[in-house]
Target: FAD-dependent oxidoreductase
Amino acid sequence: MTSAPGEPGLQPPKVTLPARDLPVRSHADVVVAGGGPAGFCAAVAAARSGAHAVLVERAPFLGGTATGAMVASFMGFYWRDLRVGGGIGYEVTRRLIEAGGATGFGPYVLAEAGENPAKVRTFPFDPEILKIVLDELCGEAGVEVLLHTQAVEPMLRDGALTGVILQGIDGAEAVPAHVVVDATANATLVRRAGCATQNSPDQRRERQPMTMMARLSAVDVQRFRSLPRQEKRALARRGVESGELALQLLSMVGSPAGEDGFVMVTRVSGLDGSDSRDLTRAEVEGRRQVRAAVGFLRREVPGFERAYLSALAPWIGVRETWRIAGDYVLTEQDVMSGRQFPDAIAQGGGPLDVHDGNGAGLILKEPPAPFSVPYRCLLPRELDGTLVAGRCASATQTAMGAMRHMGTAMATGHAAGTAAALAVEHGASPRDLPAEELAGLLIDQGAIVRSPLLDGRKSTSGGIDDCQQ
Model:
């Protein structure tokens, strides 16, 4: 029996390309690959710390999941009512409010129509305003931003990354750098440099499902929010039974404008979000599911009678692809015990959020306290000159379910960018940096590195019925 093209076990035919010289148009202290929540924070942090930072993004705008996948609500900044996210990520929320793209943090019930909802604090925002805010943020910091450009290969020498090969519209070029930050979400550069991964290639189609987000206009947001939870559950079950909803959720985040809703009602399983062919199938299937769901919402769900589809996310949201094997692998036990590490660079608040890749299930667990992310999770094992940030960091699948929230991802990016600039200043590898010096810098920059509970602060948590979607 033979494997299909792209399946493990089959060696596809190869074509040898002639060697060629690439132009070097710029040098950098720090190159950041990927302009999502982790990447833009890394680039801004590096630039503010005095490094010449180049930020590379394949899309025509920054923001990644927040803008391109249209996941228009930040999570991970709070554990219960206690803020655990600060630094550049929190600054972004303040700028969004000033720009009229958000009103602030508020209570939200995650998976209210599901079997195990979780009360959280979220920050709804307008993705279009966020694009502009990030342009301004990077411009003020002096980041050299390259949009419409993809980081395709690492430059390697003696087991260390020394730069990145970029592919732009007008051709390829090389950018040498002292430190490379891989914030591609897929660990593209460090994997190609030989870094081992925490998850197996044989299980790449058993990962968490993908979601296509949609923006609906003319929604009576308050009417929908006022529906009792049990009615929402009954409606969600009816949608799944009719085949018009792909999962038993009626998740919607209202826009700051008041009459738009960002809905998460799709689930695309069994495909690899780091494989272009699988991702093509996922995009098409996601749009098909949105069309079916909109019909159901308009017909069955109070508040959506006049709603219409005003925008589809530019690309499907991917929860999980590759996670590196780093100097430390964060575990579910670490998260669910609220473990605090001596080399902590960020705090997370959860919840632990894992979607079943083969069914309709969803695991939601609240950690008993904030948990910390150690610096070692950002260091690819046996590879120098580089750091990772965001959802490709070193963690198990379940631990990443709590760590991948955008507030926490931004915190890892801020830490990676500051560490990269510090490595440039010291002429050292990121692995050799003193953890205490890095933590001190992050704290000076407004990041929350140590658990606020250790400062004697208290927290409270109300019931599910105290807040609504």
